[in-house]
Recover the amino acids of this structure.
């Protein structure tokens, strides 16, 4: 008798559970697919040295331009006879690192500006006008200018994309920080004599995390698109570095004889950017309904 | 609106100054001595010194900056290190093709983007909407050069339908028109997605508004409700957002020009940077920035003119 009642009691005791962020995210098939793709891509990039069948710079001219599906070359070989599987894995690594560095550097600096503007109202106007000025330049112009100043290279691209990310992140962070700043508990924290840095870190920042996370995910896709475009133009990663944009640029020279050399890295970029964009959109819907469009 | 326009103009001043300063700094960090480059490898030290004095390179930095500003205001951007052609002349030849390409890309992609966005909003949540949204997200994720290379390979090379290198003539000639189709499809193709998404959001905002409900209530046909009452009011944010995307378009144009060997400013800039032709790089970057600032300014003022609420 008592055994039959027990489960009932347990059911009543458990509070109605709100589905977690991950569960809400995975409910959307496209988002679940994007998440899997992102995990796979990051895994492939991290494990490139283990997964790659050859060294990324090993070339065998007798294999040059072998089509995908040739013996031992599922994705074919490039014009120097380098295994495309290896090149794509290493290319993902460099491209993702480039994106990660840009979003991290630009994002952190931008977040600092955003918190400062929201917290210290006196410098808000000045900081945000400065951000407006930076926003009036498209990222590609930063890329061109910095490549002209420092010479083409990955550093110039990362610097340009970081700079272009700062004002965007600053606006997002300022917006969500301002929404929290007016609340009573911040006032209470101030009254207890907490330092500014501590209030921002302990009480303001955690409430901005979801917006930051959503923005960073979406920005990652954009940064990869821009960075690979700069590399494609020859302003970013320089050959023989395996970087997806630079690989596409190299393949462009052999487009009519061996289109796979250009198309494979292009497809890889497209897949990565698409995955991050879909995931970013889904995260926004799941985490931050205010930002929903 | 007048006040708004003046405000935006004032805002443009520090931006302009920043551009000019970056241009100046660019010439300061040049690894090679410009006077030495100009003089050539066989010049005697006397000649180099004379050229240095002539270029004002022996003066203090702030005097050089003044000189540089003076020259800029007189349209003197220097001469190319590579072929000795005045930078301004080269720019004059390339601005037209770039504007042409942008025009040809926008003229078909904006209407299609707006139509797709409107249909998506109207059929919100339905299969059509989901398909359009998926298409828009995919379109916004595709590298410009990918689209360009695929079109070159398939339409240009395999089917031999359209030319894919260079610009054969102005837009109003047959060769010019045929030659711009693939570049314009490429650049415009990446623009449809963002326009469709922005339009969908803007129309969704408007569809729920009272006057649209009133229009429905008085028995207007659905097509009229959407086009006359919803889309029209959604146009203000759409125009602004499209204007803000011009930077995105500019980036796409630089890549498209390179892929199709289109003789525009973007290709000139990339070529100059890759060959370390600093005066040319400086000139192209300044002109691209100026163009961008100008477009933003026009969009801003246009926005104020379109929206009666901004006139207060």
């Amino acid at each position: 008798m008592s055994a039959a009642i027990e489960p009932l009691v347990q059911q009543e005791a458990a509070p109605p559970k709100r589905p977690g962020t991950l569960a809400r995210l995975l409910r959307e098939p496209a988002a679940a697919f994007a998440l899997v793709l992102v995990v796979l891509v990051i895994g492939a990039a991290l494990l490139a040295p283990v997964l790659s069948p050859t060294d990324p710079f090993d070339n065998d001219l007798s294999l040059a331009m072998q089509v995908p599906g040739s013996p031992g070359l599922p994705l074919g070989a490039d014009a120097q006879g380098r295994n495309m599987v290896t090149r794509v894995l290493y290319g993902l690594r460099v491209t993702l690192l480039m994106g990660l560095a840009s979003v991290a550097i630009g994002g952190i600096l931008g977040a600092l500006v955003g918190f400062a503007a929201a917290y210290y109202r006196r410098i808000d106007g000045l900081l945000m006008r400065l951000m407006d000025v930076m926003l009036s330049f498209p990222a590609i112009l930063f890329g061109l200018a910095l490549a002209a100043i420092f010479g083409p290279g990955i550093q110039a691209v990362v610097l340009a994309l970081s700079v272009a990310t700062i004002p965007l992140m600053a606006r997002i962070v300022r917006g969500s920080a301002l929404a929290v700043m007016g609340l009573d508990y911040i006032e209470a924290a101030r009254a207890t004599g907490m330092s500014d840095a501590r209030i921002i870190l302990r009480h303001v920042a955690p409430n901005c995390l979801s917006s930051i996370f959503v923005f960073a995910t979406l920005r990652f896709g954009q940064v990869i698109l821009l960075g690979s475009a700069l590399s494609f133009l020859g302003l970013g990663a320089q050959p023989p570095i395996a970087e997806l944009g630079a690989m596409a640029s190299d393949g462009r020279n052999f487009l009519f004889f061996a289109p796979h050399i250009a198309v494979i890295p292009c497809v890889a970029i497209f897949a990565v950017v698409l995955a991050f964009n879909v995931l970013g959109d889904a995260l926004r819907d799941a985490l931050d309904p205010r930002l929903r469009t | 609106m007048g006040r708004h326009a003046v405000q935006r103009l004032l805002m443009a001043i520090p931006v302009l100054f920043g551009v000019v300063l970056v241009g100046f700094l660019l010439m300061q960090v040049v690894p090679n001595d410009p006077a030495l480059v100009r003089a050539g490898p066989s010049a005697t030290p006397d000649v180099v010194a004379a050229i240095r004095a002539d270029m004002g390179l022996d003066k203090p930095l702030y005097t050089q900056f003044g000189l540089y500003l003076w020259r800029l205001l007189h349209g003197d951007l220097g001469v190319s290190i590579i072929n000795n052609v005045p930078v301004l002349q080269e720019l004059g030849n390339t601005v037209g093709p770039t504007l042409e390409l942008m025009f040809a890309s926008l003229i078909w992609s904006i209407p299609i983007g707006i139509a797709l966005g409107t249909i998506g909003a109207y059929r919100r949540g339905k299969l059509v909407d989901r398909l359009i949204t998926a298409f828009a997200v995919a379109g916004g994720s595709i590298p410009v050069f990918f689209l360009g290379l695929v079109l070159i390979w398939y339409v240009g090379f395999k089917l031999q339908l359209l030319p894919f290198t260079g610009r054969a003539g102005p837009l109003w000639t047959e060769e010019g028109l045929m030659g711009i189709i693939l570049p314009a499809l490429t650049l415009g193709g990446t623009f449809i997605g963002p326009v469709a998404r922005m339009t969908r959001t803007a129309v969704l905002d408007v569809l729920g508004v009272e006057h649209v409900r009133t229009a429905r209530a008085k028995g207007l046909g659905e097509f009229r409700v959407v086009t006359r009452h919803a889309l029209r009011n959604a146009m203000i944010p759409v125009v602004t957002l499209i204007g803000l995307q011009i930077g995105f378009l500019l980036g796409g144009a630089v890549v498209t020009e390179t892929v199709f060997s289109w003789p525009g400013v973007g290709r000139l800039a990339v070529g100059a940077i890759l060959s370390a032709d600093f005066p040319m790089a400086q000139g192209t970057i300044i002109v691209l920035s100026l163009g961008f600032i100008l477009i933003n300014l026009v969009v801003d003022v246009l926005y104020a003119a379109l929206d009666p609420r901004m006139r207060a």
In short: Chain A touches chain B through 46 residues (CB under 8 Å). Residues 100-242 of chain A form a domain with the MetI-like fold fold (CATH 1.10.3720.10). Residues 1-11 of chain A have pLDDT under 50 and may be disordered.
